[in-house]
Structure prediction request, 121 residues.
Amino acid sequence: MPTARREAGDAAERAALDYLQQHELKLVARNYSCRGGEIDLVMLERQTLVLVEVRLRADPRFGGAAASVTPRKQQRLTIAARHLLMTRRELAKYPARFDVIAIESLGATPKLEWIRDAFRL
Prediction:
């Protein structure tokens, strides 16, 4: 049974996906995971592969959603990205970047920030 935290995370991912699709990105995969990490959304923006980490924080006292993408989290995303590119060779032809969708609240109007090219492989 889903927990409240998991349900909030799923809602945040849906909000991020809707937002990115409104900006003409195309979904390739959701929740791509391997032993080393997980990528929330794998998208294409024209000829660029966009690997998206969605972060939700209800309480900004600890640095907010964007600040929660720590160096350790970046390392795990990089591991998952390398695995994705090795297993889905058709995606390796695209230049890739990591984006973060930082959501501070999921209320009636979510406060969503799209951070393009948030960090490097």
In short: The longest strand covers residues 26-34. The two ends are 35 Å apart (CA to CA).
